[in-house]
Design brief:
This protein is α/β, with parallel strands linked by helices. The protein has helices at residues 12-29, 45-53, 105-115, 174-177; strands spanning 5-10, 35-41, 59-68, 79-83, 93-101, 121-129, 142-146, 152-153, 169-172. It binds inosinic acid and magnesium ion.
């Protein structure tokens, strides 16, 4: 598995230090609120687990699973919901937890979908951000790392469902996907 990685971009220590910082900020910003973290399956699972451990105020979690309609190069901006929320978010303070924001199309749709359910507030956190590739404009409140436009795997991120279990974030060798 590791032989498919060209370079380690972010090691475990760096990631965990950053998540601690974000968790601290969230704990301060959401004091006295009804925080619910909504993870976008499956890539956000590791980030969600680490982040939640670093939040020291009461909070709950839920997950959604979405997939883009049609082929990814010509995304229509419409996503199909494969798994919806288990419980109502009306009046709650919602924080969407994502692994990486690329075009932003998926998240823009998801944020609109969730906003229609009348939460008290709705914000986004992403472990990784690829600003160069943004097509949809979305506001992201907590960003772990800005990353260059390489195909990244590990720490939840996959290529063809593989590499999610790598404990670091690395650049996948081009010959693997070309
Ligand atoms: P977008 O922001 O709608 O373009 O889609 C973002 C989603 O694409 C993320 O949640 C990931 O699942 C996937 N994705 C984008 N860039 C990468 C990458 O470098 N590695 C792995 N998955 C990625
Ligand atoms: Mg994702």
């Amino acid at each position: 598995m590791r032989e498919d990685i060209k370079k380690i971009l972010l090691d475990e220590e760096k990631i965990s230090k950053k998540i601690k910082e974000i968790g601290k900020n969230i704990s301060e910003d959401y004091k006295g609120k009804e925080l619910i973290l909504i993870g976008v399956l499956k890539g956000s699972v590791m980030y969600m687990a680490e982040l939640m451990k670093q939040i020291d105020i009461p909070c709950t979690m839920d997950f959604m699973s979405v997939s883009s309609y049609g082929n990814s190069t010509t995304s229509s901006g419409v996503v199909k919901i494969l798994k919806d929320l288990d419980a109502s978010i009306e009046g709650k303070d919602v924080l969407i937890v994502e692994d990486i924001i690329d075009s932003g199309i998926t998240l823009k749709y998801l944020a609109q979908y969730l906003r229609a359910k009348n939460p008290n507030s709705l914000e986004i956190t992403t472990l990784l951000n690829k600003p160069e590739r943004r097509k949809a404009d979305i506001e992201v409140k907590y960003i772990g790392f800005e990353v260059p436009d390489y195909f990244l795997v590990g720490y939840g991120l996959d290529y063809a469902e593989k590499y999610r279990n790598l404990p670091f974030i690395g650049i996948l060798k081009e010959e693997i996907y070309k």
